[in-house]
Amino acid sequence: MAEVGECSASNSSIQNWAKLNIEINSDEAVIFSETKSSSVDKYEWCKITRNSDVNSITLQNRSFNAILVDETLVQKDDIAFIKCGSEIVSGPVQDGHLSYKFEILSDSKVCKGLKISMDVEHTKCSICLNIWHDVVTAAPCFHNFCNGCFSEWLKRSQEKRTSVLCPQCRAVVQFVGRNHFLLNIAETILQEDSSLRRSVEEIAILDSCSLIQSNLVIGSGKKRTQKRPHSVLGQEESGVLELPCPQCGTEYAGFRCNPNTVHLQCHGCGGMMPSRFDIGIPQHCLGCDRAFCGAYWRAQRLQRSGTYATCNPETLKPISSRTISRIPQLTHENNQHEQDITERCISQMGKTLQDVISEWIVKFNNREIDRTRMPLNHVEMITAETHICNECYDKLVGFLLYWFRISTPKYLLPGDATERENCWYGYACRTQHHNEDHARKRNHVCRPTRSR
Ligand SMILES: [Zn+2]
Ligand SMILES: [Zn+2]
Ligand SMILES: [Zn+2]
Ligand SMILES: [Zn+2]
Ligand SMILES: [Zn+2]
Ligand SMILES: [Zn+2]
Predict the structure, then answer these.
(1) Could you say which DSSP state residue 197 is in?
(2) Residues 149, 127: contact at Cβ < 8 Å?
């Protein structure tokens, strides 16, 4: 399998070049890029198959756009043969796009890896002229910008109610999304040459304007191949997709989409909603940055029907209006002994799980808890009124239960738990997951006092 996003900067005499090394250890590999190292979200970029003659490689374009391979257009999902020195351009035309040089690293005459090289000049945002920060790609022209820069542009276009034109080539933008493959590359270049880095303040300002959190779809969504569950029953691909969302054809709450409306795809149901920045209705979970449509359609007073995929309003709700009756499975690092102790401890106190969580949400909201280990995005911005998704709520509950346990004196725990000593490795202990006896004898709801 390919080692992904393994970026190693060039130390050769050719300045201003960066390369991406991908070790191919099998005959076939799909190249992904990752959102961040901890993330499970991966984005396919291309699939590479080593041919039997060893010196050539078949590349299948798995990205969402056409690319150029040695000046030949390769459509999405099509294949091309590449060899040492092949040039790959990340878009359908040469101009303004990144080009990579593929090199077969010959180690004892065996093709072992691929090297992607690119010119640093092609990794700059044409709005701010810096190396991209949190790069987003506009389609169908496939020009790349900083998320913050493009978001400001998008906002201005939407205020003027005009279609969104690419700031670089003026093509009508029909799609814009974060580009996780290029993210790795931009980071590599910055590691190579730190003089290209911007100040922390500049980055903070840019981040505060960044609105593009997931893949956006503009217009008809004809090319939509992502999941589209239980909607548009019996209708063929080409049919109703002309109207991707309920507001495209019908006015609700005083709003109707126009042909240039940007649409967001809901992570919960796969349905579409118009992206609207101006109305104060959350369309993303702040904890994970994914789009959810529940709160939006509720605010638009849309009656759910079978025609379009829409979520129930529960998918995106303020923390304070959520309820909980069971300890989430991920609590205490999935350690069921600890979950059991927490559960018995709560009932011994004559409380319900809901009572405890409500109390701790108050403390959380009053910033009485250290948020360092909170497993959500934007932890400092989250309050009791923040809309988050079900998954993030479970994570929050797990986090609060950790603090509940940490702050409960041992003598208040159920009898069998009062005498347990803390495991040196605390919550980070790996043994707790495979050694029942160890998990029972040692407390793991504590900070590690040793690291491995
Ligand atoms: Zn920029
Ligand atoms: Zn463009
Ligand atoms: Zn619409
Ligand atoms: Zn979430
Ligand atoms: Zn939805
Ligand atoms: Zn342990």
Answers:
(1) P
(2) yes
DSSP secondary structure letters along 236-288:
-TTSGGGS-SHHHHS-BTTB---TT-EEEE-TTT--EEE--SSS----B-TTT
Q: Which ligand is nearest to the CA of 427?
A: 6
Say what the pLDDT of residue 409 is: 92
ipTM of predicted complex: 0.67
Span from the CA of 392 to the centroid of ligand 3 (angstroms): 27
The rounded distance, in Å, linking the Cα atoms of 90 and 367 is 46
Take residue 87 and report the two structure tokens written for it.
């040039």
Q: Residue 124 Cα, ligand 1 centroid: separation in angstroms?
A: 7
What mean pLDDT is predicted for residues 159-184? 76
| Residue-level pLDDT at 98 | 61
CA of 126 to the centre of ligand 3 (A): 30
Which tokens sit at 220? 């008809």
User: Minimal CA–CA distance to 268: which of 237, 304, 298, 312?
Assistant: 312
- Tell how far the Cα of 146 is from the centroid of ligand 3, in angstroms: 26
> What is the whole-number distance in angstroms between the Cα of residue 424 and the centre of ligand 6?
7
Distance CA 317, CA 324 (A): 13
User: Which residues are paired to 365 by β-bridges?
Assistant: none
Structure tokens, 78: 């099509």
How many whole angstroms from 431 Cα to the centroid of ligand 6?
Answer: 5
Query: How far is ligand 2, taken at its centre, from the CA of residue 11, in Å?
Result: 32
| CA 249 to ligand 2 center in whole angstroms | 29
Which domains, from first to last, does the chain contain?
7-120 (2.60.200), 124-212 (3.30.40.10), 217-311 (3.30.40.140), 321-420 (no CATH)
For residue range 357-395, list pLDDT tens digits in order: 999 999 999 999 999 889 998 898 999 999 999 999 999
Average pLDDT value over all residues in the chain: 77
pLDDT given for residue 102 in this prediction: 67
